[in-house]
Amino acid sequence: MPHTAREPQPVTPEPPGSTSRPLLTQSWLDLAFVHWAADPSDVAPLLPPGTVPDVLHGRTYIGLVAFRMHRVGWFRLPGIPYLGSFPETNVRLYSVDEHGRRGVVFRSLDASRLIPVTVALTAFRMPYRWARMSVRRQGRSITYASRRRWPGPRGARCRMTIRTGEPVEEPTELEHFLTARWGMHYTFFDRAVYLPNDHPRWPLHRAELTECDEDLVTTAGLPAPRGDPLSVLYSPGVPVRFSRPARPAGVPTP
């Protein structure tokens, strides 16, 4: 496994910088963060070149994150009401590159709008998948359901329900590690890219996973989760801004 050239940047609950000229804006609403521990050696082969698993006390994590995407917009234009608003569920890993930048790596992103999925898949090489999806709330319980349509494997599914609890006054070290992520690593035409983002500090709540029937994790090439998740959190959401992608050296792409 390659070693990073620099020490990882500290985990900070606020973004290290702000985006004055956003490339992309959106809001993430009604998020369920569900995480299991994983062996770094199991996930390392699935990360983009130039990155290694980000670890906390020797362990890395597999995240299953379900939420509502709201009003995706380009540059400073208003977000799109219909095409830019949809449920999404992603399987993600935790990464750090040779420049010390911590991020996430998406193994799959299931979403319910075909046009945004097609654009993200074909133009940006993001692993988006079109799925039939719903997010339903009943009291303190929220149920997220999805069944994949295209591309395959058709029928890959996720149905999970969380019960939201009390607000988190001070997140633990692990909760900061899993949620305070200010960028993503991915590969675009065989080149490693880092896409920074910023948003307000997460408002987090404790949560309980009361139902989980899914095969998105194994479909994404990862080991099946073992036992109960080590962390379950809920957030009502935040507005998010993405700046221009950066190559590994930090130079913005054309």
TrEMBL record:
InterPro entries (alphabetical): ADC_dom_sf, DUF2071
Note the SUPFAM superfamilies from the entry: Acetoacetate decarboxylase-like
Q: What Gene3D superfamilies would the database entry show?
A: Acetoacetate decarboxylase-like
Region Disordered: list its residue ranges.
1-21
What start and end residues bound the annotated signal peptide? Answer: none
Q: Which domain of life is it from?
A: Bacteria
What name does this protein carry? Answer: DUF2071 domain-containing protein
Organism listed in the record: Streptomyces bathyalis
